[in-house]
Write a structure and sequence with these properties.
mainly beta; four-stranded antiparallel sheet; six-stranded mixed sheet
């Protein structure tokens, strides 16, 4: 059974940093491209970033490019999102997902506020 559990969120001041993790289990993590999504209060899901299965190709939405960095550790079955220079508009629940699959599992709340 596929399980994806994001963690590492919290309350941070504008300009601060957070590192999110996503623990994957129930499938061969190293065989799949992975995505990060986020959902702001009262809004739909927005795609944030993608990383290919080997971890050598990454893609970002325009809103986070240059501030966020996606990475993965295939040996640990874990996906990461390093978020720097955070802005209030980054406030959302963040989820990880297998590329091309529905978003499932537990997200993690990120709140950027002074």
């Amino acid at each position: 059974d596929v399980q994806l559990q994001a963690s590492g969120g919290g309350l941070v001041q504008p300009g601060g940093s957070l590192r999110l993790s996503c623990a994957a289990s129930g499938f061969t993590f190293s065989s799949y491209d992975m995505n990060w999504y986020r959902q702001a209060p009262g809004k739909g899901f927005d795609w944030v970033s993608e990383i290919n299965k080997r971890g050598d190709k990454t893609y970002y939405s325009d809103s986070v490019k240059g501030r966020f960095t996606v990475s993965r550790d295939n040996a640990k079955g874990t996906l990461y999102l390093q978020m720097n220079s955070l802005k209030s508009e980054d406030t959302a629940v963040y989820y990880c997902a297998i590329a091309g699959n529905s978003i499932r599992g537990q997200g993690t709340q990120v709140t950027v506020s002074s």
